[in-house]
Amino acid sequence: MKDVYVVTGASKGIGRALCLELSSNGFSVIGLARSSEQLESLGDELTKLDSNSIVLECDLANPLDIEKVSQSIKTNYQRISGLVHNAGMINPIKPMAFVESSDWANLIQVNLIGVQDLTQRLYSLMIGEEQVRITTISSGASKHPIGSWSAYCVSKAGLDMWTRCLAEEGEKDNISAISVAPGIVDTNMQVEIRSSKPEEFPLHPHFMDYHKFDQLEKPEKVANQLLALVTEHDYEQTGQRFDVRDL
Question: Contact at 8 Å (CB) between 126 and 175?
């Protein structure tokens, strides 16, 4: 029986690339993302690589979606070997004094609360004698405040600490947890950043230049760099934060 990994934010960018990287290297994958043509096409690609791999629709902004997809996974799989919390959003990109509270809260739900909810609901599939590896996708914004990114910075800082808490509590259940900052990657999130209003985001010119001067890393390269950490990190590494650029 192949090891099974759950990957959120699976339809695009790093999530999609990592799903394909895992499947191409002998792992089964459960890819979660909001409904889209990209998710359907990923499902077709994964099925060709591994008949036990599937995609499931799940919007982490909706707790009912998390409950439904978790139940589906528990019904169809006896165990999962790992979980990659990749899904995340960057908007609202707006100064703290002017951002809508509902938008701020929605980002926290997707980037942080949904991570706890999904993990808790799948926890029973991870307890056992074999090590289960959980990876969260972090960001430089978890360590450095960035103007107009308050919700994103807070969510990523919280996610890093959530990972350390899970590493502490999960050890008795043979669950390890690490966080990894992927660097500046050519994903849809970068498109959203470049589409933000320059007058509301002081660093807007820098992100325009990252794209203009081809300084964005390809998701496929990042997924390849992540593979070993996601599938092989040991108990001595649990609770640690890594940066892809240092690997």
Answer: yes
In a domain, 143, yes or no: yes
As for how many domains the chain has, the answer is 1
Instruction: Convert the pLDDT of each residue in 40-63 to its tens digit.
Output: 999 999 999 999 999 999 999 999
Rounded CA gap, 151 and 171, in Å?
30
- Note the pTM of the prediction, 2 decimals: 0.97
Q: How far apart are the C-alpha atoms of 53 and 24, rounded to whole Å?
A: 11
Instruction: Sort 219 into a burial class: Cβ within 10 Å, 0-12 / 13-18 / 19+.
Output: buried
Residue 233 lies in a domain: yes
Residue 132, both tokens: 């289960």
